[in-house]
C-alpha cells in the first residue's frame, strides 16, 4: 500500500465563505487524553469524494475544537486509514481559517477548512479508492500533539464518464431506435479514463415537455465499456445513460441526446 507524501500548506483565510453543507459526524469525538476535543465535523457535505485523473479536488470541511491548551498552529481535519497517527493520510494541501469563538470560557472555536487532493500526485493510485476514516489533529508546544478519530467514515471514489448516441435522428414513430454509448472510469495509475466493463447502466428517457427522466431498461457494458440496445420510438424526447456507481466508483450520467419524430 502506498502512502501519500504531503505538500503541506496552511494559512489564515479572511472573510471565508459561509457554511453550505450539512453532513455531520454521527458521534462527536470526546475529550482526548491530550486535553483537546473535536466535534461537529462535516466533510464534503456527507457526499463521497469523487476524483478524476487531472483536476485537483477541493473539499470543504467544518469543525469545532474545544481546548484551553496553548497552541500556535491551526487544527486540521483529514482522511486517514490504517492506524490513527500513521502516515497513510489523504491530502495534498490545506487552508484553515482563524478561530471563530463559540464559547470563550469553555475554549470552543469553530473552524472552516479547504482541503485538496491532487490525482496527479506521484504517490496517488487506484488502491486509494474505497473506505477512509476522518482524523482531527492539533500540534502542541514542545513537539506534543493531539490526534483523534472523529468517527466520520469517508468514501473515496474514481470518477466515471458516460456518453450517448441515439439514431436515426429523426425517427419514424413506432420504428426501432438504436442507443449506443460508453461508460469509462478514471485510472489514477495512468491518469486516463478507460472503458469500464461489466457495469449495469440504465437507459433513461425524458419525454418532450417533461422535466424528469424515467428508466426504460438496464444494459450491461461490454468488456470495453461499450453500451448498445434498441427501443421502439413511441414519442419525441431525450435519451441518456446513467451509471449509479459502486463503493469505489462515482455515479454519472451522459448528456442527453434529443430525438424528434417524423
Question: How does this structure look, described?
Answer:
The chain has about 260 residues and is an all-beta fold. A hairpin with a 4-residue loop joins strand 12 (about 175-185) and strand 13. The chain is elongated. Strands 1, 3, 5, 6 and 7 form a 5-stranded antiparallel beta sheet that branches. Strands 2, 4, 8, 9 and 10 form a 5-stranded mixed beta sheet that branches. The chain is built from no helices and 19 strands. Mean pLDDT is about 90; it is low at about 1-35. The chain has 2 domains: about 35-155, Immunoglobulin-like, CATH 2.60.40; about 160-260, Immunoglobulins (Immunoglobulin-like, Sandwich). InterPro entries: TAT_signal. Keywords: Signal.
Based on the model shown, name its key terms.
single chain; 262 residues; mainly beta; Immunoglobulin-like; 2 domains; 5-stranded antiparallel beta sheet; 5-stranded mixed beta sheet; 19 strands; disordered N terminus
Layout of helices and strands, plus pairs?
Blueprint: E1 37-43, E2 49-51, E3 57-66, E4 76-80, E5 93-96, E6 100-103, E7 108-117, E8 130-139, E9 145-149, E10 154-158, E11 160-167, E12 176-187, E13 192-195, E14 200-207, E15 214-220, E16 226-232, E17 237-243, E18 252-253, E19 257-259
Number of helices: 0
Biggest β-sheet: count, sense, barrel? 5 strands, antiparallel
Total domain modules:
2
| CATH architecture descriptor of the largest domain | Sandwich
The number of distinct β-strands equals: 19
> What is the general shape?
elongated
CATH hierarchy class name of the largest domain? Mainly Beta
Mean pLDDT: 88
Structural class: mainly beta
Give the radius of gyration: 23 Å
- Poorly predicted regions are 1-33
Cα distance spanning the termini: 57 Å
**Share in helix:** under 10%
Order of helices and strands: EEEEEEEEEEEEEEEEEEE
CATH topology of the largest domain: Immunoglobulin-like
Strand content: over 45%
Signal peptide: 1-31
Organism: Streptomyces griseus subsp. griseus (strain JCM 4626 / CBS 651.72 / NBRC 13350 / KCC S-0626 / ISP 5235)
Keywords: Signal
Protein name: Calcium-binding protein
Amino acid at each position: 500500500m502506498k502512502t501519500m507524501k504531503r505538500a503541506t500548506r496552511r494559512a489564515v483565510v479572511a472573510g471565508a465563505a459561509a457554511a453550505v453543507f450539512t453532513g455531520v459526524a454521527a458521534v462527536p469525538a470526546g475529550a482526548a487524553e491530550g486535553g483537546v476535543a473535536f466535534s461537529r465535523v462535516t466533510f464534503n457535505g456527507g457526499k463521497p469524494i469523487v476524483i478524476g485523473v487531472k483536476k485537483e479536488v477541493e473539499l470543504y470541511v467544518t469543525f469545532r475544537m474545544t481546548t484551553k491548551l496553548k497552541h500556535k498552529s491551526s487544527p486540521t481535519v483529514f482522511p486517514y486509514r490504517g492506524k490513527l497517527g500513521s502516515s497513510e493520510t489523504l491530502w495534498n494541501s490545506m487552508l484553515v481559517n482563524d478561530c471563530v469563538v463559540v464559547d470563550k470560557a469553555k475554549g470552543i472555536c469553530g473552524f472552516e477548512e479547504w482541503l485538496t487532493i491532487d490525482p496527479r500526485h506521484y504517490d496517488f493510485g487506484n488502491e486509494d479508492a474505497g473506505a477512509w476514516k476522518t482524523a482531527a489533529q492539533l500540534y502542541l508546544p514542545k513537539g506534543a500533539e493531539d490526534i483523534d478519530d472523529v468517527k466520520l467514515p469517508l468514501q473515496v471514489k474514481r470518477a466515471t464518464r458516460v456518453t450517448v448516441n441515439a439514431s436515426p435522428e429523426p425517427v419514424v414513430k413506432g420504428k426501432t431506435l438504436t442507443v449506443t454509448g460508453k461508460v469509462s472510469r478514471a485510472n489514477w495509475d495512468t491518469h486516463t479514463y478507460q472503458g469500464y466493463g461489466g457495469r449495469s447502466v440504465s437507459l433513461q428517457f425524458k419525454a418532450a415537455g417533461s422535466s424528469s427522466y424515467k428508466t426504460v431498461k438496464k444494459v450491461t457494458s461490454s468488456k470495453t465499456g461499450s453500451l448498445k440496445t434498441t427501443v421502439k420510438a413511441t414519442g419525441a424526447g431525450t435519451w441518456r445513460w446513467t451509471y449509479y456507481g459502486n463503493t469505489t466508483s462515482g455515479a454519472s450520467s451522459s448528456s442527453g441526446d434529443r430525438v424528434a419524430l417524423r
